[in-house]
Design goal:
By secondary structure, the chain is of the alpha+beta class. It contains four helices and five strands; from the N terminus they run αββαβαββα. Helix 3 links the parallel strand 3 and strand 4. The model has no long low-confidence stretch (mean pLDDT 96). Bound molecules: tetrahydrodeoxyuridine.
Amino acid sequence: MTTKEDHRRLVEAAKSVRMNAYSPYSGVKIGAAVLTPDGKIFAGCNVENASYGLSCCAERTAILKAVSEGSRKLVALAVVGKSEEFTSPCGACRQFMVEFNPRMKVLRRGVDGFTEDTTADSLLPGAFNPAELSQK
Ligand code: THU
């Protein structure tokens, strides 16, 4: 169970890390943050590269940080961008979310006031996730 206060903290963390976006090529700034069942938050921004395809989205940066610090169970993710179209996670990030929790809440927030709450599995119906059948 996540509370309104958890959501507020999570969105706030995503909003502040957005300022660290390294995006000299696109100019797009995205922040994301994930929440663990015990209330820990890991935040990440998009990090681009001159070799464009190497760029990492904010959502994956946040998930990579959590998992590499030992937190695999992720109950919610917030993504903050300028407006609605900048808060729609790419396919790779959706697959990354499903890997760690298909039921993960996804809080999409635009700095222009856009708000939508959804889940990882509704963003990626029919996802490939055989790992769910084994112990992660
Ligand atoms: N980006 C994210 O960080 N998250 C998204 O949900 C969509 C796109 C980044 C990747 C790239 O740095 C920039 O936004 C433009 O695509």
